[in-house]
Design a protein that fits this description.
The chain has helices at about 1-20, 220-235, and strands at about 40-45, 50-55, 70-80, 80-85, 90, 95-100, 100-105, 115-120, 125-130, 140-145, 155-160, 170-175, 185-190, 195-200, 210-220, 255-260, 265-270.
């Protein structure tokens, strides 16, 4: 019986090798043409300059570096006033961002009126727009910690969620200085605790003596969804069977990217 099984397997491998040897006809795959699209990134932060990053996306077969857009008219309008941003680099070192359009105008703290971005790309002749609002920060009530049996520390904080609206949050936890590694990047919504007090802890990665800053962002829904779509796209990048995913932004037309205003509350805490 075993001998018959071996003969069958040998015959199957022989037939397979003949089949594979004859599968040498080239296969033509028609890929869509490369398409360069405008990429917009703009974050309005109170007490920071108005700034926008404009560049073009690279096609799948494009080996050239991403190109910055230098011929565009960029404006931000708010409460009846329009500011024109010049093609002038601006580095926001505190938040680790670089922009190629900026204005000396400092962002205020208006939680009522809408901010509108307008970009006219002189090269393509296309006009793009987006709108956002600055949401009021949600205060952090307290910061505390927990210790495990290995004397490793988890940082926790408590805040009270406003019950009138749906909220979208992002937590940062910086250690020692704001410019150092952020170990507590986490996004979540108030779906399970709307209108109530809520506490959230990090992993056990801190130690006694650490000085930490806990920051809680109150995000616009479109920016939260933008971040989620980027995360999904990054996960799909390593999976050849995954469906194509594109970042879900709020820029009109065929442009990619996001225009949003960021507000946050923060508290410092020294682990005893």
């Amino acid at each position: 019986m075993m001998r018959n099984k071996n003969i069958f397997l040998q015959a199957l491998l022989f037939c397979s090798s003949i089949f594979l040897c004859h599968c040498t006809k080239p296969i033509t795959v028609n890929l869509p043409p490369d398409e360069n699209r405008l990429v917009v990134e703009a974050y309005l932060i109170p007490q920071k300059r108005l700034a926008v990053a404009l560049q073009t996306s690279a096609g799948i077969s494009n080996t050239q570096p991403v190109l910055l857009v230098s011929r565009a008219r960029v404006t931000i309008s708010h409460n009846g006033i329009t500011d024109t941003l010049r093609n002038s680099p601006y580095i926001d070192s505190a938040n680790g961002r670089v922009y190629n359009y900026s204005s000396p105008v400092i962002m205020g703290t208006d939680y009522v009126n809408t901010y509108t971005l307008t970009v006219f790309d002189s090269t393509s002749g296309k006009l793009y727009t987006a709108a956002t609002k600055l949401l009021p920060p949600v205060p952090i009530d307290s910061v505390n910690h927990a210790v495990n049996i290995d004397n490793e520390v988890s940082i926790g904080f408590v805040f009270t969620d406003p019950g009138a609206v749906n909220n979208y949050y992002r937590r940062f936890v910086f250690i020692n200085e704001l410019s150092t590694e952020n170990r507590g990047n986490f996004r979540f919504t108030d779906r399970l605790f709307n209108g109530t007090a809520f506490s959230l802890f990090t992993r056990f990665i801190y130690k006694s003596g650490d000085s930490v800053t806990v920051r809680l962002y109150n995000l616009n829904q479109d920016y939260f969804e933008f971040l989620e779509s980027i995360n999904t796209a990054e996960d799909a990048a390593g999976n050849p069977l995954a469906q194509p995913v594109f970042a879900k932004g709020n820029i009109s037309g065929d442009a990619l990217g996001i225009f949003t205003a960021l507000s946050y509350a923060e508290k410092k805490y020294i682990v005893p």
